[in-house]
Amino acid sequence: MLRELVARYESLCAAAQECAIAPDLQRRLDDVTYTLCVTTGTRKLEHALAAARARLAATAAG
Hints:
The protein is mainly alpha-helical. It has three helices and no strands. The longest helix is centred in the middle third of the chain and has 18 residues.
């Protein structure tokens, strides 16, 4: 689930950089950001991404 959330966030960010952010795109970006924060137990996107990536790396290594 974390891998999918991180991938979705990165994909939406890439789409947001290519054009003006449409309301639907902004809503989806907000939704995935919220879900990442809840899933990782954090309150800031940067912390959520770091925690998700650390968990994914630990899973891959273990």
